[in-house]
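User: Here's a protein and a ligand (S-adenosylmethionine). What would the complex look like?
Assistant: Let me lay out the input and then the predicted complex.
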Amino acid sequence: MSMSGPFREGDRVQLTGPKGRLNTIILASGKQFHSHRGTLDHDGLIGLPDGSVVENSAGVKYLALRPLLNDFVMSMPRGAAIIYPKDAAQIVARADIFPGAKVVEAGVGSGALSLWLLRALGESGSLVSFERREEFADVARGNVVGFTGQDPANWRIEIGDLVERLPDAVEAGSIDRVVLDMLAPWECIDVVSDALTPGGVLLCYVATVTQLSRVAEAIRGSGFFTDPESNETLVRGWHVEGLAVRPDHRMVAHTGFLITARRLAPGTELPQPQRRSSKTSYGDEDVELWTPGAVGDRTVSDKSLRRRVREAKAGAAASLARENGDADEVELEVVEVEGELLSESPSESGDDRND
Ligand SMILES: C[S@@+](CC[C@H](N)C(=O)[O-])C[C@H]1O[C@@H](n2cnc3c(N)ncnc32)[C@H](O)[C@@H]1O
């Protein structure tokens, strides 16, 4: 299958018809593309440059383009949910997938990420993809062969659980990069650290913040990696037409989080001790995030805070007294509180205006 030049037999071609409707065909001499709007001869496309417009038997026009990998993964058959192109691009960059890299991924799912990884690691690299479910592996293989036109010699799928299969499937310390896209990547940290070469990169893609927290703490707690870094990628399309230039109304808001860490050399301890992993540990920075100043509220002086506590208590006492029918007591309580307030220094009443 050719990726550029004039269309040839065996090429996958995406036809954009009226109203933007998409159809993908694989060119075969003598075949026809049928729609309720007429027929289009494949032979009429073979030999034309990529990006040509052709007419079918009823004069309906179609734009013919080879699908980009981006187009292909979004329309290919799916077993499991795929990694979207925006995340795949970040994975290739943040996991530093280079030509010649030895890469392990799990699970293979529908093979979307496998396609991006194979493209980035090139013919001199190799990819071993692990998948628990054989039928998903079949979908992935079908998609990879469907897009590339071959069963890549440098790609192998291992059926089974990564934790059980990885130690026998690859030589310890021989893998440059590991990418995990699965429900529970924290269960795989030990086997992955054995497989990775010192300096190698582990990247996990997870959908929820609870998974993110759990895998980050597992990576930290193992002591085999640098402190993990996390992020997510938001891509917002724009409508650009004449003077109507604005963000698109709709976007894919959330897909997943990426977390990366690098394998330390065996026996290495980081120069600065990493924070101890604990489900309940918070740093000063985290606490600061919840203070009124950090969330945009005005900060409160200690004196003002004490006064507010007294006011709140007085309010509570007044409510209780009112409930009990002790109206005199209510008045008395309030007067007492006000008296206490007035007895405070004049500078404190100044605070009141400033905070
Ligand atoms: C979301 S899918 C992966 C999608 C894939 N990255 C893609 O872009 O098409 C997650 C896959 O991981 C597989 N899986 C989950 N845990 C696994 C494990 N421990 N070992 C191997 N495969 C696993 C599941 O069966 C599932 O197919």
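Summary: Residues 123 and 154 are 7 Å apart (CA to CA).
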